[in-house]
Structures are given as C-alpha cells and as structure tokens.
Amino acid sequence: MAVQPLADNPFWDFSVALYANETIAQQCQALQDDWDADVNLLLYGIWLAHFGIDWPIDDIKKMQAEFEPWRKVALIPLRTVRRRLRFQTRRRYYNFLKNLELRAERYQQDRLWLICSADYTTQQLSEPVSDDLFQPLLKKNLHAYLQRLEMRPRPEPMHPKVDEQLEILFAAVIMQRASSN
Predict the structure, then answer these.
(1) pLDDT digits (tens, 9 = 90+) for 25-73
(2) To 5 degrees, how large is the angle CA 46–CA 4–CA 99?
C-alpha cells in the first residue's frame, strides 16, 4: 500500500512557499551539501521561529535521531543517483528520481508536521510573530541545529563559510517573510 501525503500540512505549504525563493533554496542546498544539514530540519527551525517557538536542543536531538535513518536509507541515495543523472541523456530517469525524492521529502515533512502538531497547540501555530521576535529566534534555532551537526567545538566561532551561508539565508528568509505579509 502506497503512503499518501497528508491532505492538510501547513508546514509543507510554508516550506514550498519559502523554498520557491531561489536564494533560500540555494543556501539550504549549500548547507546540505557542505555540512550535511537536513533541509527539512532547517525549514522546520524557520517554521518554529515564524510562530515564535524556541527550538530546544533536546528536541533537535530527537528530530535528528528520528530522521537520520530516513535520510541515510532514502533521501541521500535518491539525491545522489538523481544528481549523477542530471547531465546525462536519460532526462526521463532524472525527472522520475527527482519526483521520488520530492515524495520522500514530503513524507519526512508530513512526519515533522505530525510531531509538531502534537507538541504545540493550534493557537501556538496560528499567528506568526512580529519581526522583533522572529529574527532572533530564526538565528537561534538555526544556529542550535547547525551546532548539533558538530561542525565546530563549542567555544570557537562557526566556520566562516557557514556564517556567510547563514547570513545570506537569514536575509533571504526575512525578505521573503516581509514580502508575504
């Protein structure tokens, strides 16, 4: 029996709208490629900040433990094969794998939404917060997630390339958010 996507997943809708911004997509992919970040978890950290929710480190750890096997078994192999076919003549296979990868991403996002809707009330997820609250939470949530990837020892500054990628991502998300309000 095929797994059907959830009919109503506001997190997916939010992610699709956000990811349609080319700069956001590029920076998420760069963090994925350069630092093995999970794009869905990056988007989840942004989603939580959008509603004024601090992403506790213990929750980040649980999410990583929950989804790392899925990434290793499904997402990463699909992405690797798809990328290898990108410039080959078998465009039909590339498109098939791209669609399959997108379905796998959607499956993960549906699971994230189910966890989120169990952890937070409808009221907490109904009204976006002001930019004064959003911007510091955005940075805090994404820094906390990337630190959990163990890219650096605690007292040292983040790798300059990560800082640059994050700053570009922060600016793009803030601009996207402002244009959609």
Answers:
(1) 999 999 998 888 999 999 999 999 999 999 999 999 999 999 999 999 9
(2) 70
Q: Which residues contact 13 (CB under 8 A, 6 or more apart)?
A: none
Distances (CA, A) of 23 to 18, 75, 136, 180: 10, 22, 20, 16
Alpha carbon 117 to its chain centroid, in Å, reads: 17
Evaluated on CA atoms 168, 51, 38, 82, the torsion sign reads negative
CB-based burial label for 83 (10 Å; 0-12, 13-18, 19+): middle
CA 41 to chain centre: 4
- For residue range 75-108, list pLDDT tens digits in order: 999 888 888 877 776 777 878 888 898 999 999 9
CA-CA distance, 176 to 174, in Å (whole number)? 5
State the pTM of this model.
0.88
3-state helix/strand/coil string of the chain: CCCCCCCCCHHHHHHHHHHCCHHHHHHHHHHHHHHCCCHHHHHHHHHHHHCCCCCCHHHHHHHHHHHHHHHHHHHHHHHHHHHHHCCCCCHHHHHHHHHHHHHHHHHHHHHHHHHHHHHCCCCCCCCCCCHHHHHHHHHHHHHHHHHHCCCCCCCCCCCHHHHHHHHHHHHHHHHHHHHHC
